[in-house]
Amino acid sequence: MTHQTAGIHHITAFVRNAQDNVDFYAGVLGLRLVKKTINFDAPEVYHLYFGNENGSPGTAITFFPFEAGRKGQIGGGQVGWTTFVVPVGAIDFWRERLAKLQVSFSEAVRFGETFLQFRDKDGLQLEIVEREQGPQSNWSFGGVPADKAIKGFGGAVLYSVAPHKTMEVLQQVMGLEQVGAEGGLVRFRASGDLGNMIDINAEAMEWGHGGAGTVHHIAWRAQDDEDHLRWRAKVQESGLKPTPVVDRQYFNAIYFREEGGILFEIATDPPGFTRDEPFEALGEKLMLPEWYEPNRVQIEQGLSPIKVRVLKEDQA
């Protein structure tokens, strides 16, 4: 049996201002800030995670807010569009909401589905589509009720500088199935019900460069630590060069760059975000791994305060 990933685990991007980031993803999109921590490789920078009520795999979009970071250029070697999925019948709510909050959007049709396409304050390309698949979110915030809330990822559009190589990795390494092609895009499907539809350009694209408004990496799901090691061996056997397993507190991770230039991660579903704080308090306190705890005061002093707040347009 082919070793298949269930789909996207999380997507991580660069932004500039942490409060703007919170206001957009919690305030506008209604996601829950499920973890407030730091970039373990650059502890002077937040690492913020947003998702459904508990940040389940397949729902978490995460950010590194580099206040003085350069502006990125979206292009080859990146995730081009991050796709969120909402319940069937919720698309009109999101049309009205984006218009009310003065978020410019356009509509696109792809593989028979309608997408609302827009950008966050840093220019990150986002889209919303409605589908039946996937459990509904139980989180409501501000002007977003749970029955209209984002369920998680619908998938992503990958921008590759060598699409035939990227498609080879999606099929032969990650176990995705090719299910369609149209309009210069090829569609692949993973085995799960969230983060499972991946579209990729059929022709090579010009390189982009990293910075605010671009995706740093896309992470794929591994069931557990044992499955994770099987994935690492499979990546290595394919001729790619995975990193050693890295402890990210809320999952274990390996990283590798496929030949189309996109940084892939494979991350374990467990242990999840409640390993160091209770469900009811997720995202409220700055959480540090134990090796940074002795430096808490210094780290907190170097980070701008942030607050999850209801937007004024949603205050009745």
From TrEMBL:
<keyword id="KW-0560">Oxidoreductase</keyword>
<dbReference type="InterPro" id="IPR037523">
    <property type="entry name" value="VOC_core"/>
</dbReference>
<feature type="domain" description="VOC">
    <location>
        <begin position="7"/>
        <end position="131"/>
    </location>
</feature>
<dbReference type="InterPro" id="IPR052537">
    <property type="entry name" value="Extradiol_RC_dioxygenase"/>
</dbReference>
<keyword id="KW-0223">Dioxygenase</keyword>
<protein>
    <submittedName>
        <fullName>Ring-cleaving dioxygenase</fullName>
    </submittedName>
</protein>
<feature type="domain" description="VOC">
    <location>
        <begin position="152"/>
        <end position="269"/>
    </location>
</feature>
<dbReference type="Pfam" id="PF00903">
    <property type="entry name" value="Glyoxalase"/>
</dbReference>
<dbReference type="GO" id="GO:0051213">
    <property type="term" value="F:dioxygenase activity"/>
</dbReference>
<dbReference type="InterPro" id="IPR004360">
    <property type="entry name" value="Glyas_Fos-R_dOase_dom"/>
</dbReference>
<dbReference type="InterPro" id="IPR029068">
    <property type="entry name" value="Glyas_Bleomycin-R_OHBP_Dase"/>
</dbReference>
